Amino acid sequence: MTKTIIIVFLSFLTFSCADINQDENAIAELENLRAENDSLRKIVADIDNKYVFDSVTVRDIPNYKNTYEFNSKIKGEIVVVGYNSNSKKSRVIMVDSVDYNPKKLFNPDTLKLTNGGYKYEIELNDKEVTWKADITIQNQYGRKFQGLLMNKAATKKN
Predict the structure, then answer these.
(1) For the segment 23-75, what is each residue's pLDDT rounded down to a tens digit?
(2) Which residue segment(s) compose the domain that 120 sits in?
């Protein structure tokens, strides 16, 4: 009878120790999940203050005061629609030409971001003038974009 009581008592102690270890593991896992949940809440709160877009569109908007006469200035603005501006990672560089193997920009001029657009000014000193812009847009949450914008203007015929 004493043997049975000792066996039952030892079994009870063994199972109770196993339960304590499982409880400690469950508590540790719960703390890890809480920390992960808090970090996800911070990310969601950061995203709530921004728009996240699935596409990026680039528009070249000419200035309405452009006359397109010979030796006049052509002004315009390159606007990237559908992204959150990150001026440190996004850029627009006006170039004469681009070589892609390896990538090399000829006569680069980096445009400054002003009121959501990259303003440029080009002299119309020929019958036709073509301008190019190397565009790189990088966002933390939205879509990234890289491309070459090319546009052309001709002098007004009288």
Answers:
(1) 778 888 888 888 888 888 887 777 666 666 666 788 899 999 999 999 899 99
(2) 57-154
| Cis amide leading into 102 (omega within 30) | yes
Count of structural domains within the chain: 2
Q: 98-126 pLDDT, tens per residue?
A: 887 888 888 888 898 888 889 999 999 88
Q: Are 117 and 131 within 8 A, CB to CB?
A: no
CA-atom Rg of the chain in angstroms: 32
Q: Which residues contact 47 (CB under 8 A, 6 or more apart)?
A: 141
Q: In this structure, are 31 and 66 located in the same domain?
A: no
The continuous run of DSSP H or E covering 78 comes out as strand 72-81
| Amino acid, res. 70 | F
Measure CA 10 to chain center.
62
